[in-house]
Design goal:
alpha/beta, 2-enoyl-CoA Hydratase, Chain A, domain 1, eight-stranded mixed β-sheet
Length: 571
């Protein structure tokens, strides 16, 4: 850059603060000849004079009316608020106050009213149209939110109501911030007909477009019926509160009319049903306060969007952390059960982890945690439930979690102790091949850092599916108790030596001898390591440190996705 150019740049950027009367906003004024108007100071002083003039006589009245209207909107209909409280439910604004940081909420379109003229609507046009929408912060981080207001039209969704949710979703994507929906609605507003259905479609389309771009959280705090139930199903996480939340496509009356089966709202679509049977609910709580507190905690573990890293905390020196209790928690005998949650706690910073789908498909665990201050996704077989076998629901649960972590740049740590896939006619007819392939597909396409730790047994196709080296894990670690094989020694001997055992004078003695020989040759801990399928055999007490070192080594991993529109997940 030439000297004259440098001088010109300096003059253009230079500025001075010009004194102005008290109460007037100060601004930077350039020196004459730099391209800034020399009349700027005069203009500023003129503005000051305008501010000093008496306000119009009707301004106090207009201001008072505005404040009265805002107060009326915020207070709501007192009798409807009392009914809401009598049902054990908070109002939309009370919920937002619990969810968001104090005084951080910025509301959008509080004056919005429907324009419909259907039965019961022409003279009934409350402001907000039954949904409070806007943005706030959680621990200082920006989120976008909407809370359906059951005290107005039962929280039903009409055209104006939907338009506000559309705007929140659009703003969340544009700003790269998580979106949280607090659902408490009777469903589509019947009087608005197809416009209400069109509003739902707009929500669903935006949710799909936002999938993998920003985290989406749905919180069910009341009814969520009909087409409205698809919104939580499309979200990344769904929270429900017992006794008050219910979610279904068709209610008890329709079920009885069609099938003759009588069922209560809770039996059909209550929180425990979706938390343990259907798997729709990610987390179930007893009350709204603890539920919303847990949503805040979850947000603290999530990145704002797919381009941002997950929020990190101060490193905990995990790379040098020795945990001898791990060797005590896991029995050496491959058939002895233990709780994989205890292993998760030993690996995670401060023993804290956020478990997802705790009541559904309990034979596999999925959780978010921090190791050395950085967020990771933990996947582990659960030996205390069905010996940790993989079945259809467990495969789907883990696949969904793996895909979420991969979408948002969260490294994966898979803790393997699996005897195989659950055998049986019901499993085969239920689609175990297709469901297991979902987990296989999820791991294979994941580009985030991936670490596998084999604690004990890893048999058959389940070993492959649980992020083995063959499907692309970056680092495979194994304990000295690991057994990687097509099947266990007993099963292998029964298949390989069926005729010899049938002809033996002492089948039991021969079987014991053959099992010992098979175990020594094929199930010894060195077998896979000698063939490059395991990177290291580690002391169980060093697991946390070894995983932390592996994560540090893989922190800058970059693996571009293949050039294609998208894969075809075996749904």
């Amino acid at each position: 850059m030439s000297g004259s150019q440098e001088s010109g740049a300096a003059r253009a950027d230079d500025a001075e603060v010009v004194p102005v009367p008290d109460g007037v906003r100060r601004r930077r004024l350039g020196r004459p000849g730099t391209g800034t108007s020399g009349d700027a100071q005069v203009i500023e002083l003129a503005r000051a004079a305008d501010l000093a003039r008496p306000e119009p006589a009707d301004m106090p009245l207009l201001r008072r009316r505005r404040e009265e209207l805002r107060s009326h909107i915020h207070e709501g209909k007192l009798d409807a608020v009392r009914r809401q409280h009598s049902l054990g439910k908070l109002t939309a604004r009370e919920r937002l106050a619990l969810l968001l940081d104090d005084d951080s909420f910025t509301e959008i379109e509080p004056y919005r009213r429907h324009q419909a003229t259907g039965p019961g609507l022409a003279g009934n046009r409350p402001h907000t149209d039954g949904v409070v929408a806007g943005s706030g912060t959680i621990d200082g981080r920006r989120v976008f939110v909407y809370a359906q207001d059951f005290t107005l039209f039962g929280g039903s969704l009409g055209e104006a109501h939907a338009a506000k949710i559309h705007k929140v979703l659009d703003l969340a994507v544009a700003n790269g911030a998580p979106v949280i929906g607090l659902n408490d609605s009777g469903g589509a507003r019947i009087q608005e007909g197809v416009l209400a259905l069109n509003g739902y479609g707009g929500i669903f389309r935006r949710q799909v477009e936002a999938s993998g771009v920003i985290p989406q959280i749905s919180v069910i705090l009341g009814p969520c019926a009909g087409g409205a139930a698809y919104s939580p199903a499309l979200a990344d996480f769904t929270f429900m509160v017992r006794d008050t939340a219910r979610m279904y496509l068709t209610g008890p009356d329709v079920v009885e009319a069609v099938s003759g089966q009588r069922v209560t709202h809770e039996e059909l679509g209550g929180a425990d049903v979706h938390g343990s049977a259907s798997g729709v609910a990610t987390v179930v709580h007893d009350d709204e306060e603890s539920c919303l507190a847990d949503v805040r905690y979850l947000v603290s573990l999530l990145p704002s969007n797919y381009l941002d890293p997950p929020p990190a905390t101060v490193p905990t020196n995990a790379t040098d952390d020795y945990r001898p209790r791990l060797a005590e928690l896991v029995p050496v005998e491959p058939n002895q059960p233990y709780d994989m949650r205890d292993v998760f706690a030993e690996l995670a910073d401060d023993g804290e982890f956020f478990e997802l789908h705790e009541g559904w498909a309990r034979n596999v665990l999925c959780a978010l945690a921090r190791i050395d201050g950085r967020v990771v996704g933990l996947v582990g077989n659960q030996p205390v439930v069905f010996a940790g076998v993989l079945d259809g629901p467990a495969s789907q649960k883990a696949a969904r979690f793996v895909r979420f972590c991969d979408a948002f740049g969260i490294p994966l740590v898979s803790l393997v102790d699996v005897p195989g896939f659950l055998p049986g006619v019901e499993q085969e007819r239920g689609g175990i091949i297709r469901q297991g392939a979902q987990l296989l597909h999820a791991y294979c396409e994941a580009t985030v850092p991936r670490i596998q730790v084999i604690l004990r047994k890893a048999y058959g196709g389940a070993y492959i599916v649980m992020d083995s080296r063959s499907i692309g894990c970056d680092l495979s670690l194994a304990w000295p108790t690991n057994q990687i094989a097509v099947m266990g020694a007993e099963g292998a001997v029964n298949v390989l030596y069926r005729r010899d055992l049938a002809a033996a004078a002492d089948p039991a003695a021969l079987r014991a001898k053959l099992v010992a020989e098979y175990t020594e040759e094929f199930l010894n801990p060195q077998y896979a390591a000698e063939r490059g399928l395991v990177d290291d055999i580690i002391d169980p007490a060093e697991t946390r440190a070894a995983v932390a070192r592996g994560l540090a080594m893989l922190r800058d991993k970059r693996k571009p996705a293949p050039a294609r529109k998208h894969g075809n997940l075996p749904i």
